[in-house]
């Protein structure tokens, strides 16, 4: 009896231990009640010009950065230059309204030399097969014939001439014939309306990301400028501030080039890895956890400036090679920081955009990326960002369910669609309590992945809102996003736009944690 009772107690104890081990295994966190209250270190290791515009101040000829989109109206035809059919054919100057076919996107070689990409992704160039001078848009990769200088009228930012590598300016001879044969030395017309080589220039879009800033400064200056930025934009005392103001985690956006530090592919420059090392060191010192977030994947997963794109194209995931390269970046980061006491989670990719990124491609990458993290750590959570754009909020569940320590990242902004244009303060707040709550409920399941509101901000479309309005708005988001099973992260710690600057919001009493 005695023996058997001891033995059954031992048995119960073992079951208890087993259950406990299983539970701990399922849930990488030791404390199931812990919730991430994070702030992103946005604009630090992945440049975003709107966060810190002054970073671009010293770039020569900075109107023409990679990805700048512009349109050209011929002063003689009074019509827009256009790649017929959007590319793959001739170039004309007969379009009355500028749209996609009339928009040219810059690839910058240096402050004087540019290549110009059209809608269908070919490059403007001289046609050697035809008359030798006509302008076409047929080359898929740019060379000498596709390289131009853009010459501004002195003292006038609106008028330009475009010089080809044959030494001649482009001219709109007629609405249907654009050629590169206007003598460069001819200044007799003085940039007037009778000069077929003069075009009125209009910028239609700009990108201010890591590619733009590094390629803009060029190989000699970019390393100095970026290292200075990394050293000064985020410093040790920021971690002290974070730890003393109710936050417990930082989400650190990084770019894929960090994995080939110290000599990443051009134009990116080395040194961001040492900055990330510092972040881990400071995090440890102040008891802050770290989420590494692959914000910029090779080829760009969304075409936005914060993805490291050159010209707004979305090329990520188009080849197996590219996916493998991305998995290698994750593996590099996981292996480097797996044993670090502050590593809390690895986010495999930020904001992949639908339909450019298909759900099947994403699932394939997520499976491989998860395995790459798990080869180095059982403890760190793995965060899977939901696609933006058309998608189903639970579309990742099939690949994620059953993966230990998995988290879905959703981003809730009340800014980027027209739905919010006319909302009042109260409507915004109601939207959070009803619509965001409902969206959160839709992805939250009792034994599925945890949910992370990985980006939100107390900014909206409301004009002239008072401080008290902002306080209520922020509090509503904290209430609702505080229920997310993994936690939330504010975008971002520091920003010239004060409501996007959590440090400013806390110091000025707009947000209290
Ligand atoms: C512009 O010129 C091209 C080439 O002649 C022609 O095919 C096209 O229809 C013209 N477009 C307009 C809007 O006139
Ligand atoms: C310079 O431009 C004017 C006006 O278009 C033209 O009359 C003249 O022939 C041009 N000179 C040369 C050298 O091409
Ligand atoms: C918010 O939810 C309400 C009620 O379900 C719905 O009628 C409304 O369209 C939603 N608003 C937006 C902007 O999606």
Automatic annotation (TrEMBL):
Gene3D superfamilies: 2.80.10.50, Glycosidases. Pfam families: Cellulase (PF00150), DUF7910 (PF25490). GO terms for molecular function: actin filament binding; hydrolase activity, hydrolyzing O-glycosyl compounds. Residues 61-203 form the DUF7910 domain. GO terms for cellular component: actin cytoskeleton; cytoplasm. SUPFAM superfamilies: (Trans)glycosidases (SSF51445), Actin-crosslinking proteins (SSF50405). Keywords: Glycosidase, Hydrolase, Signal. The keyword Signal applies. The keyword Transmembrane does not apply. CDD domains: beta-trefoil_FSCN-like. GO terms for biological process: actin filament bundle assembly; cell migration; establishment or maintenance of cell polarity; polysaccharide catabolic process. Residues 1-28 form the signal peptide. Residues 227-495 form the Glycoside hydrolase family domain. Belongs to the glycosyl hydrolase 5 (cellulase A) family. This is Probable glucan 1,3-beta-glucosidase A. It comes from Ziziphus jujuba.
């Amino acid at each position: 009896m005695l023996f058997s009772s001891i033995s059954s107690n031992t048995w119960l104890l073992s079951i208890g231990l087993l259950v406990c081990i299983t539970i701990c295994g399922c849930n990488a966190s030791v404390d199931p009640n812990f919730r991430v209250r994070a702030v992103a270190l946005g604009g630090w290791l992945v440049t975003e010009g709107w966060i810190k515009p002054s970073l671009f101040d010293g770039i020569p000829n900075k109107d023409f950065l990679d990805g700048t989109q512009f349109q050209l109206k011929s002063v003689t035809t009074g019509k827009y230059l256009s790649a017929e059919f959007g590319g793959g054919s001739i170039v004309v100057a007969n379009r009355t309204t500028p749209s996609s076919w009339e928009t040219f996107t810059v690839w910058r070689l240096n402050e004087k030399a540019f290549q110009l990409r059209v809608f269908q992704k070919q490059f403007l160039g001289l046609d050697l097969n035809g008359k030798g001078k006509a302008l076409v848009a047929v080359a898929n990769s740019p060379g000498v014939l596709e390289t131009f200088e853009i010459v501004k009228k002195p003292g006038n930012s609106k008028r330009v001439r475009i010089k080809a590598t044959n030494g001649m300016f482009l001219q709109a001879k007629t609405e249907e014939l654009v050629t590169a044969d206007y003598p460069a030395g001819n200044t007799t017309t003085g940039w007037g309306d009778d000069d077929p080589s003069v075009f009125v220039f209009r910028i239609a879009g700009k990108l201010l990301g890591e590619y733009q800033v590094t390629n803009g400064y060029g190989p000699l200056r970019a390393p100095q400028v970026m290292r200075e930025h990394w050293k000064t934009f985020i410093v040790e005392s920021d971690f002290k501030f974070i730890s003393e103001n109710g936050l417990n985690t930082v989400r650190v956006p990084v770019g894929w080039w960090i994995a080939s530090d110290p000599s990443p592919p051009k134009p990116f420059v080395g040194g961001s890895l040492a900055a990330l090392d510092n972040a881990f060191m400071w995090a440890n010192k102040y008891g802050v956890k770290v989420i590494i977030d692959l914000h910029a994947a090779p080829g760009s997963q969304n075409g936005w400036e914060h993805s490291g794109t050159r010209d707004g194209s979305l090329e990520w995931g188009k080849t197996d090679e590219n996916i493998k390269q991305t998995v290698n970046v994750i593996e590099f980061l996981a292996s480097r920081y797996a044993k670090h006491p502050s590593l809390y989670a690895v986010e495999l990719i930020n904001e992949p955009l639908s339909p450019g990124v298909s759900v099947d491609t994403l699932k394939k990458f997520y499976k491989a990326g998860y395995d790459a993290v798990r080869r180095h750590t059982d403890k760190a959570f793995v965060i899977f960002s939901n696609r933006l754009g058309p998608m189903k909020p639970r579309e990742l569940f099939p690949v994620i369910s059953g993966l230990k320590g998995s988290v879905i990242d959703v981003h809730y902004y009340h800014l980027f669609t027209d739905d919010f244009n006319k909302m009042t303060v109260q409507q915004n707040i109601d939207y959070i309590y009803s619509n965001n709550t409902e969206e959160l409920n839709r992805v939250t399941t009792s034994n599925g992945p945890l949910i992370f509101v990985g980006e939100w901000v107390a900014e909206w479309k409301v004009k002239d809102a008072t401080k008290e309005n902002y306080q209520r708005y922020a509090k509503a988001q904290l209430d609702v996003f505080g229920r997310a099973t993994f936690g939330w992260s504010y975008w971002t710690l520091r920003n010239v736009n004060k409501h996007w600057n959590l440090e400013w919001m806390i110091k000025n009493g707009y947000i209290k944690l």
